[in-house]
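Second attempt. The first submission of Universal stress protein had a stray character pasted in from the spreadsheet, which I only caught after the job came back as garbage. Lesson logged: always re-copy from the clean sequence file. Corrected sequence (276 aa) follows.
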Amino acid sequence: MKKIIVPIDFSEHSEYALKTAARLAKKNNAELLALHMLEMSEVMLTASGEEPQKIIYFLKLAEQRFEDFLKKDYLKDVKVIPIVKHFKVFSEVNEIAQKYDADLIVMGSHGASGVKEFFIGSNTERVVRHADIPVLVVKNDLPQINFEVIAYACDFLEESIEAYQRAVKMFEKMGARLYLVYVNLPNDKFRNSLEIERLAVNFFTKADGNLDRMDAVYHTSDYTVEDGILNASIKIGADLIAVPTHGRKGLAHFFQGSVGEDVANHSTLPVITFKI
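This time the job returned cleanly.
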């Protein structure tokens, strides 16, 4: 992990993300790309007369505030690259990640009541769906970055193999213990234990070339995937929840609709997403 992006809106929760990103950067000797997006409409930026002077003034004011915000003690030993964009276009976060060859995006979230200010409405979902790299969502200050036990939501379908392999590579470097959580749903989505085991055997055979991780499979029954993942993470004592996503196409298999985003919003634990 060499480069980490963290969007900043000056809120308390974006500072939680900044602190987390800083600790990850120190731990991995990585660069930190601090991103601020200004709320400037196209009309304002194309205005005539005296308006452009006012716009320049507010741009400079915002940039100065951003510079002041980054004067934190916990950033002293971190190489920080400030980036200012004049629009809140959330697909640009992924474009910046590609331009700088970043490895991770760290975002702050307000949790179950929805995300506010920088992440208004479904903006967290937009970043996750556009991002080709993992997105780590945090909603409180994490004094230590010790992800020792991880609950990885898995449907054991072949299309999820690449995301699983990227996650395993990252978590092995952390020295974390990985549990693969399969949520068994009622009615037409229900599978018995033997069917789940067969899915897992096929998955590991193709993904790992062995069945060493069969003991790490944790399957649980619940009414929704979200509840199953959250309840399982508590039972196994997870420090982090990982969820594979299909990006703009939605979430895979039983990860339909906004399950990934719901988990990120309602979990008290940090959540990381991996693009399928």
